[in-house]
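Section handout 9: paired folding examples.
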Amino acid sequence: MSKLIAKDMIINEVIRKFPKTMKVFKEFKVDSCCGGGFSIEKTAKTDGVNLEDLLKALNEVASS
């Protein structure tokens, strides 16, 4: 599986490019509204989410 989504990508840009990722952000309770203007890494850290698990789930959805 190739990585389509990287930790330095902006959440809102990821959702625009891969709309199906919205459900992953919700499942992980990542703030994709107010935190949507920040990188996945920064928002995951702020929200206390495991970055590697989040990226794996996002890439699985984006590549399906």
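Moving on to protein 2 of 2.
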Amino acid sequence: MRSETIVVDLDGTLLRSDMLLETANQLVGRSPVTILQLAGWLTGGRASLKEQLARATDIDPSLLPYHEPLLNWLRTEKERGARLVLATASNELLASRVAAHLGIFEDVLASNATINLKAARKRDALVEKFGAKGFVYVGNDTPDLTVWQAASGAVVVSDSARLITQAGQVTQVLATFASGRPPLLRSLIKAMRPHQWMKNLLVFVPLLAAQQYGNTSLLELAVFAFLAFGLTASSVYLLNDLVDVMDDRHHARKRKRPFASGDLSLLVGWLAWPGLLLLAILISVLLLPGRFTAVLSGYFLLTLAYSFSLKRQAVLDVITLAALYTVRIVAGAMAVSVSLSFWLLSFSMFLFLSLAFVKRFGELEKARARGKPGDIRGRGYSPDDLEVVSSMGIASGYMSVLVMALYIQDSKTAILYHAPKFIWLACPLLLYWISRVWMITHRGHMHDDPIVFAIKDKTSWLIGAGFLTVFALARFA
């Protein structure tokens, strides 16, 4: 294709995302009320909507998920003498930023405030500029067939054998590229983070603490509560990843998440998270007590506040995280209608506050190691806060041990356990685990999520088994 003109589509082709979705996602992620603003802009037409979104947002083209194999191929063709042109239905402001960042395109054709440059309109603009059969066109979807009819050749970026065949019926297919996207369901399940459902096992804690684990009807209610919380949590994970997509693209590990990497469409996310939430609400309303539904609703609202605001407030963010764990225990008590223990709630709040500080310490430590100045992106901390975060986190963890020690002396404990003094053995186990977690964190070996670390850590499992043994001795010895 030496010395030929190669015209490249942007959305879904060169970019493993869509600029309309990227801008809309960024705008709504800043403030949910802007959905009403979007509806108003849409009444002016699709081209006008794209113009308004382009002006209202600040998409960084260096962070967008590009189709790297295609981009490398284009660079090679440019070195061989091909003229590269970007032609997209995205707004001209955004297209120009992408072209300037990549530095390989000689010209840009894009939508403006009145014209949506797609399908027949794009074809006509290209024919007017380069002549019929005067260009090779790189596209990815059915509307591109109209453009391929006027092209001298097609480069198809798609996994669809049907689309490739259709392109070959209207012009010569010169090359094909796989989309690079995993199967939709696999990416969606990954974004839902089912492994994080382990955290929702906390809803069983009140049942165990009240020693009602032999009551099958209550156990059934706890299982439904676990399922409702799991679906709600997955809904929140999807929403949080949508809101955080640009911040995640700055992160060494999080940029590989389905939305940030382009493996999963942002539109799928905006359709999936309300669906999961609705399913959770149906389970809650139909199968569980009204008090559980009220707590679940409060949990969801608190996560919304965290996603859109509280996570950017230093210290308030970790308190919120600790509260979200504790709410799971409250919900478990509401589901099986047992009394809440003051000691259990206090223990939970201090322990999970410590783990939330572990999470933030890890981010700060990595930022300091990189010599990154200023605030941590998307958070209210700076690397200079490292020592105070560590101090507060360790203190919180040790406070949870103190609460456990005081619980042993409570008069109600003597009623629940035949030999409550055995519970003292749990104190050194917990002291060791908390100290070990913080030692690993200080050495820079902690996972971004300490709960995930605990799930994968053999020593944590051994300590957990030790806990169960201690409480079994206290109960039955």
